[in-house]
Design goal:
The chain is mainly α and about 325 residues long. The protein has 15 helices and no strands. It is about 80% helix and about 0% strand.
Amino acid sequence: MVARNELMIVTGQLLAYTCNAIIATVWPQARMWRWMLAVATLPAIGLWIGIHLLPESPRWLANRNRGQEMWAVLNEVRMADEVEDEGQDIIRRVEEERAVGRGGWADLRIRWIRRITLIGIGLAFFSQLTGVNGIMYYAPTILISTGLGTRASLVATIANGVVSVVSVYIGITFFLNRLPRRRMILTGQSGCVGSLIVLGLVFLLPESTARSYLVLLFMLTFLFSMQCFIGPTFWLMLAEIFPMWVRGLANGVAVFCNWMGNVIVAFAFPNLIAAVQGNTFFVFAVINALTLAFYARFLPETFGHTLESLERHFEEKYS
């Protein structure tokens, strides 16, 4: 269920690419970007309406001693045979959290908690420095820089969205419940490094239509490696590695660092493309190789363990 977040992200990107390509083809004009932004208000309105229809979470209600409302929500969102066990588990966990106290910044003084938090931050931050959102955000710009026309680039970018959606679906359906998390991350990261090196080499070829489509091809192999193996897995690992009483705080810090990495890539990528063209991909290949070394050295394995057993394991390993 956690990994479906990534599937919804890439599905939204595919819809955006498709809408942009239609607008650019049907209404080709200098100000078409305004219509592209205007279309984005429709899902925003839908989200605003949908939020008002969402119930409070059962855990939040239980934490505020609103037990009757908690059971009512569980009866709405769960099958009848699941309600009793999950409700009792929520109540038990809320009581455990109250007993140990609410996690805070002071808990980071504990060595093993600080260590696993730093690993989680590194996982979140470096997953953005792969450059995936540089390619997702600026795919048309990259293709235009190879000599492909603007409308052709916008249409070709739909392939990025299709491959991303299919890749995440494959990762969730066929790999996530079968392969260890660490192996998933290392496999995807290795594929990213290889694809970025080849992308840089393709840019050294003479300008031609064939070169443009080779660039697109290896953008797609990069996206497959990222979205099939890393995209779904890193969100899941962030939900698994932190101890219960600091999970909210540590996860929040890690996700903040993830978005800071996104900001760095979003601002740096177009400037690098403008300044050094295809050598941009060699820069990101080096960053990804260093990230691969970080994962190989520090990333723990969480597959096949309960959250409680992971806490005990990390406490013993990192204390």
